[in-house]
Specification:
The protein is α+β, with helices and mostly antiparallel strands. The chain has helices at about 1-15, 25; strands spanning about 35-40, 45-70, 75-80, 85-100, 110-115, 120-125, 130. It is elongated, with a radius of gyration of 17 Å.
Length: about 130
């Protein structure tokens, strides 16, 4: 019984200490014809980082970007954000955009981004931050 209790406490501590991974890895289809990876993350300062890799060169963009805030433990729509610019004829996409002006101090936020390439879309959810 004591071993089980120690195991559960250790597991809870590790879960609390390890950084949260963006949910995109779970959301991306395994049989994607275009994407090999895609992610979005947001820093405590409100800067979002977008990244995607493709199997071949083509046009890629963040086609939509949404800010959500946490209210009473639930995620709700805060506002639509202007996505960063797209790229032409590339296998890799990387961009950053500052959304601090869209955030209020003391509120917990996350970003939902949809990447589009060659007619295929992948939606990713960022980590959450308290601004």
């Amino acid at each position: 019984m004591k071993k089980v209790f120690v195991y559960l406490i250790t597991l809870m501590l590790l879960t609390a200490v390890l950084p949260q991974q963006p949910a995109c890895a779970d959301a991306m289809p395994l049989s994607s014809d275009s994407f090999t990876s895609a992610s979005v993350s947001v820093s405590a300062s409100g800067t979002a980082s977008f990244s995607a890799s493709l199997r071949y060169s083509c046009n890629i963009s963040v086609s939509s970007c949404t800010l959500q805030k946490q209210v009473n433990g639930r995620w709700v729509f805060a506002e639509s954000l202007t996505p960063p610019p797209g790229k032409s004829n590339s296998r890799r996409y990387s961009a950053q955009k500052d959304y601090a002006s869209n955030m209020t101090s003391g509120v917990t936020y996350r970003i939902i981004a949809t990447f589009t390439a060659d007619g295929e879309s992948v939606t990713c959810t960022s980590n959450d931050i308290t601004y």
